[in-house]
């Protein structure tokens, strides 16, 4: 087994065919085919379905491990270089859309100031989309909703978001409760159809579990996985929704009422990474910045609340960064 064989399997996994993999690797198709065939003989397993170009079950196992192996090799170079020069390398991070809208500009600006030689690749998606990419090694870390239901990932809480019932100013509930200065009772939602996250997502479970003691079952108008799209549907007049307050941009705040709901919990957002493996120096540098942004209480958007341990964690990571294998 050698690295070129692993690279060939990954290139097919990422690009969908032997010919596309060859183009990506800058070689000819026969070389890719030969590397895969030699690896298959060594493992006594078929890794690629030749009729479709898709990975077999064994192939997917190899690809997952190969991505981590090649990532570790890339980290070796990054860590060694970091001991004698500025931190340099590539970091791939995922971000849920509602957080990304305000977090990404700050992350990019701070990274440019502190570590201009780090290249940042950002994938936006829902928590359910980003989790598998973390597990497979496509991403080094992701800012997603927590908790995470797998032992292979480690979650560090960043902040909590207020959840609000978002409706147009002219909606009867907005007119009735918008100026009371006190939380809206959950009973007001009893017969209210809502735009809802998909069942099985963390926010949908939070909504369902919070309303259940009041004897209320959420009535879905539309169900989908993706809060930015859900918020856009609210803004386009398709119905009300329970959303993080940060999902409503400043320029729309005068058109919509954000009602505080009685006894409604906040949504937690955290930084998630694989539990096993040593993060590279660039990854640790980006993590330090992520923690520092979340700990900057004075500049957090309205409706966000830092978790108490974030500030101390940011300080500890700043110290760890000075040693590439800390």
How would you describe what is shown here?
With 326 residues, the protein is an alpha/beta fold. The protein folds into three domains: 3-72, Arc Repressor Mutant, subunit A (Orthogonal Bundle), CATH 1.10.10.10; 86-160 and 268-321, D-Maltodextrin-Binding Protein, domain 2 (3-Layer(aba) Sandwich); 163-265, D-Maltodextrin-Binding Protein, domain 2, CATH 3.40.190. 44% of the residues lie in helices and 20% in strands. It is built from eleven helices and eleven strands. The protein has a six-stranded mixed sheet, with helices on both faces. A three-stranded antiparallel sheet has the order 8-5-9. Strand 6 (193-197), helix 8 and strand 7 form a beta-alpha-beta unit.
